[in-house]
Amino acid sequence: MQNQTSPLILTFGAADPIGAIGVHADLATFSALHCQGFGVTTALLIGDSAGVEDQQHVDPDWVADQARVVLEDVEVSAFKIGALDNMEHISAIAEVVSDYPDAPLILDPFGSRLPELPEGEDMDEMLTVLRQLLVPQATLLMLSQVELGRLAETWRDLGNGETTADDAQHLIDLGCEYVLVTGTPAGKGPSDASLRANTLYGAGGVVRHDRWQHLPGSILGAGGTLSGAIAAFMALGAETPQAVDLAQQYTFGALAHAQRHGMGKLVPNRFFKLHNPH
Question: Are the C-beta atoms of residues 115 and 55 closer than 8 Å to each other?
């Protein structure tokens, strides 16, 4: 018998039947990068590669209990928190991870694949709770430029002249160590039209700005693949800027080798290195 040697990561997210997003996707990413993953299910999805038809949230107490039972048994090297659309889940998860401040926490809370909020749910209130309870605990918060703007509406009025850098700095001032903004402009020249950029902000401003070729086709789970890979590389010991670099390289490969499993969108091939070792 051999004791566990791979880094252990605990991820929170939805259970997606096709594994494009959520805990199933994260577990595949962790495995591909030589980590062992554990998954806490926050919701059950009904959907295929074309979209999600419905979801059933897991009781918040069950979410917390899933995590605590695992954490009483093993020591994890990192946490990843995926898409959240339930305030009680946010509160429950925030309370759990607050007991483990030394483990890196990757927060990727927006999910375009999830259904719209049910009637009666207040998006502003939910985002405010997210900003107050989870963002200050995050080692890295990942979100798109559009999502950052939406989150920023919870603390400022639109049209005040704030930039993406200003909004990222506000979140860092709350306690988040790094903010990774995806889909930022790659440049203004004609040759930049086919490029997309990801910008990592730290306490001193821009830490890195990476430009990538925009791949054709509609792909499910690109963002989750990136945040899962960042969690894996940090669990393996990489510092945050290096983990972001390595994770982008891995994600580009997974997207370049994306597969179409059905009649809907492409899904990242997280095991592309296994299929294409060279």
Answer: yes
DSSP 272: H
CB of 227 closer than 8 Å to CB of 106: yes
C-alpha of 75 from chain center: 21
Helix (H, G, I), strand (E, B) or coil at 278: coil
For CA atoms 202, 208, 214, 215, the dihedral sign is negative
Instruction: Tell me the three state secondary structure of residue 7.
Output: coil
Q: Provide the 10 A C-beta neighbour count for residue 155.
A: 14
Residue 159, pLDDT score: 66
Question: In Å, what is the CA distance from 59 to each residue of 18, 42, 62?
Answer: 23, 8, 5
SS (H, E, C) 89-114: HHHHHHHHHCCCCCCCEEECCCCCCC
Question: If you compute the radius of gyration of the chain from its CA atoms, what whole number of angstroms results?
Answer: 18
* Half-sphere exposure for 203 (CA within 13 Å, toward CB): 6
The string of pLDDT tens digits covering residues 115-172 is 766 655 688 999 999 999 999 999 999 999 999 999 999 998 766 778 999 999 999 9
Q: What is the pLDDT of residues 221-241, one digit of tens each?
A: 999 999 999 999 999 999 999
Report the distance separating Cα 76 and Cα 100, nearest Å: 9
pLDDT of 187 strictly over 60: yes
- Could you give phi then psi for residue 40, rounded to 5 degrees? -105, 120
Reduced to 3 states (helix: H, G, I; strand: E, B; else coil), residue 42 is: strand
Task: At 121, list the tokens.
Answer: 């749910």
Domains delineated in the chain: 8-160+218-275 (3.40.1190.20)
Mention every residue, 6+ apart, whose C-beta is less than 8 A from residue 174.
Answer: 131, 135, 136
10 Å Cβ neighbour count for 206? 12
